[in-house]
Amino acid sequence: METSRQYPDLTLDPIRMGLTVVQQLVDSLAVEVKRPLATIVTSAQAGMLWLERPDLDGQRLNRLVDTILRSASQATAMIERYRSVTDIREAVPGLFDMNDIVREAVLDLTQDVSANRVGVIEFLAPDLPHVRGYDRHFRLILSNLLANSIQALATSETKQRRIEVATQVDSAGVSVEVRDNGGGFGGHHGFAFEALYSTKPAALGMGLTICRTILTIYGGTIEAGDNADGGGWVRFTIPAYVAVQAASEAA
Fold first, then answer.
1. Computed over its alpha carbons, how large is the radius of gyration of the chain?
2. Of the given ranges (6-10, 74-78, 86-90, 105-109), which has the lowest mean pLDDT?
3. Burial of 6 (0-12, 13-18, 19+ CB in 10 A)
4. What distance in Å separates the CA atoms of residue 135 and residue 84, rounded to the nearest whole number?
5. Quick check: helix, strand or coil at residue 131?
6. Please, how many CA atoms are within 13 Å of residue 233, restricted to the half-sphere of its CB?
7. In angstroms, rounded to a whole number, what is the distance separating the alpha carbons of residues 15 and 46?
8. Pairing between β-strand 173-180 and β-strand 161-170 as defined by DSSP bridges
9. Which residues of 215-230 are buried (b: 16+ CB within 10 A; e: fewer)?
10. Distance of CA 61 to CAs 69, 74, 124, 217, Å?
11. Mean pLDDT of the 85-107 span
């Protein structure tokens, strides 16, 4: 493996400035999305009070309103998770095994995987070198890629819905690939990382854009494509933090 490659110094001001750009982007989205969510919550709460009137039998409608409340709360929690991921003011970069990040991300999405009847297969290379950074960033990237695959499969007519997650290491660093047998990119994978572009009608098209921005700050890369037999794949690579680099920094 190549060991002379300079690993980004995550304590430098330009790096934090780059992450600030990401934070501003997410904050902007949060403001825009939270306004209608607040209206939904307020309206639903008022509706529940109205349904408590003794002359109304509103059990069915009450359950519907409760669903609206829970959905809105989940959306708000998701937005806050994005904001916390990009806020590193109190965080300290560390060394992480990407296999552990993959396992945690898959575990976090267990409910969605089960609800959409998706099988997840892990092909994790042994003895991966560590990557250095903020684990919340790595988890966000993996969660985005897995969630995209789950959503693609949820609307697919594929009978055996499958996601494969693989890790490997080469001269470029540590790579993670997420592959599914859903609808794929339809030949438009060149636009996959453009802001506001999405193959899903109801999506904002910001997830992969944010992933690319974070990876660029780490000196990493990300690419996507369509499988020959259907579905799509996304692969990202981060420089490995090897002992030689750690020793040179200590000196």
1. 21
2. 6-10
3. exposed
4. 12
5. strand
6. 15
7. 46
8. antiparallel
9. bebbebbbebbbeeee
10. 12, 20, 47, 48
11. 82
Q: Measured on CA atoms in the order 70, 73, 79, 83, is the torsion positive or negative?
A: negative
102 residue type, one letter: V
CA distances to 93, 175, 185 from 134, rounded to whole Å, are 5, 17, 29
Q: Which two tokens stand for residue 54?
A: 């003794």
Count each helix (H run) and each strand (E run) in the chain, helices first.
Answer: 7, 7
C-alpha of 110 from chain center? 14
- Give the containing element (helix H, strand E) for 196: none
At 191, the amino acid letter reads: F
Q: To which residue do tokens 């994790």 refer?
A: 124
- 98, 123 Cβ separation under 8 angstroms: no
**E-state strands within 110-227:** 118-123, 131-133, 161-170, 173-180, 221-226
191: pLDDT strictly greater than 50: no
